[in-house]
Design a protein that fits this description.
By secondary structure, the protein is mostly helical. Helix content is about 80%, strand content about 0%. The chain has 17 helices and no strands. The radius of gyration is 49 Å and the shape is elongated.
Length: about 425
């Protein structure tokens, strides 16, 4: 739809109206050279203005309802689309021109300021790309391959030697205290988090069963404790937990029996690590029991870990990637190498890109109907087209006046 009339359109309308009225009025003047010149000048201006009004309007619609050679833009929709594609791909964005633009402008130098300004957006985009790549991977297959590789490596590791290096001697009082304090903390944490009520009761019942198998009279003791002392399963579980907690607390005391026993067993185990036969037994046990566990439970753990930390891992990888890219692009030599590599890659893909540019132009214009395309063009050029009408009236007036003078002279000065 057109906007309100501009000054040019009002001027063209006024010239056409004045020319038509002047020609009509001049027809009633007495015959003379002046009246004839005025009439023919006004008539030619009116005819020229009317013809150009029809021509301008016929580009977009049917003026006066005339269907013949009107609505030129809507009827030429497909031709305009093809013409626009040819103009863009063969005259504006040709393959050699695209190549020259890429060659004359350093892509890395242009990318670096943009990345520094929009670092958060670039990092987010990289994270989304990495996350999409991780989601596309087969997690189970990747975990199985990773565990197979880990198991293959683990087969050639001397685990006994590693264990010997990881277990320091606890000869000094300070080291001995730290060692026992660590055992105490681990035991107390296990009691609070790892040992459930059901497990305590299971231990309690198994202990009574083992005790009662030692003689018939022993089963009476349990009944007496339950009836006379009120020893229920719940009270027994609380008592067992308290005793185990007291034992775990005693681990932190180097002077306690439990502490001294643990230190002695620890040192005895370390001493046995010097024995080649014992070391081989440890390595064989790890290969026999540890590697199958690694392949099964390790793969399941790795899958759970990847699923739980996939987004965090993608964000961390993206942040590291952006940081390294910024650091690398600060080096001019690296930028030149990157530009040459990008240019070589782009050269192979430019013909396809060129074709896609044409497809994009065609798709964009194909979304317009003939009427919509006419409205779009009309809204942008309509006011400029009014100069055609103004020029038509003016040129018509000049040519009409000159023609009248020429015919008047040819007639020997006789009034026409």
């Amino acid at each position: 739809m057109r906007e309100a009339k501009s000054g040019r359109e009002r001027t063209a309308d006024a010239i056409l109206a004045v020319s038509a009225l002047a020609a009509a009025g001049a027809a009633f003047l007495p015959p003379s050279f002046g009246s004839g010149l005025f009439f023919h000048t006004a008539l030619a201006a009116a005819v020229g203005g009317a013809a150009d009004w029809f021509a301008v309007n016929s580009l977009f619609r049917r003026p006066l309802g005339i269907p013949f050679r009107t609505e030129l833009v809507p009827r030429s929709r497909d031709k305009i689309i093809r013409m626009a594609r040819v103009m863009v791909t063969e005259e504006i964005l040709t393959v050699p021109r695209l190549y020259r633009v890429l060659k004359d402008h350093s892509l890395s130098a242009a990318f670096l300021p943009c990345m520094e300004t929009h670092r958060a957006e670039v990092r987010k985009l990289c994270g989304q790309v990495i996350l999409a790549g991780l989601e596309a991977l087969d997690a189970e297959k990747m975990a199985d391959r990773a565990m197979d590789a880990a198991a293959l490596t683990a087969e050639h590791i001397d685990w006994a030697a590693l264990l010997q290096k990881a277990l320091p001697p606890v000869g000094g009082d300070m080291i001995r205290s730290e060692f026992l304090a660590g055992l105490q903390h681990a035991g107390e944490a296990f009691l609070e988090e790892g040992l459930t009520e059901e497990e305590l009761l299971s231990i309690y019942h198994r202990a009574w069963s083992a005790y009662e198998r030692g003689g018939r009279g022993r089963s009476m003791l349990r009944g007496l404790l339950q009836s006379q002392a009120g020893l229920t399963d719940e009270k027994a579980a609380v008592l067992i937990r308290e005793k185990i907690r007291d034992w775990a607390a005693s681990l932190g005391d180097p002077q306690s029996g439990a502490g001294q026993k643990l230190i002695a067993e620890y040192e005895r185990f370390r001493a046995r690590l010097d024995d080649e036969a014992f070391r081989e037994r440890i390595n064989s046990a790890v290969r026999r029991y540890g590697l199958p566990f690694l392949r099964t439970e390790g793969a399941a753990w790795l899958i759970r870990f990847m699923e739980a930390h996939r987004e965090d891992g993608a964000e961390a990888a993206a942040a590291k990637l952006v940081q390294q890219l910024e650091e690398r692009l600060q080096d001019e030599t690296v930028r030149r190498r990157a530009d040459r590599w990008l240019l070589r890659q782009a050269a192979d893909h430019l013909p396809r890109l060129h074709e896609r540019i044409g497809d994009a132009v065609e798709r964009a214009l194909s979304g317009y109907s003939g009427e919509a395309m006419a409205n779009l063009i009309e809204s942008n050029v309509w006011h400029d087209l009014q100069m055609i009408r103004i020029n038509g009236s003016l040129i018509g007036a000049v040519l009409g006046g000159l023609a009248y003078v020429a015919f008047y002279a040819a007639a020997g000065g006789a009034a026409l």
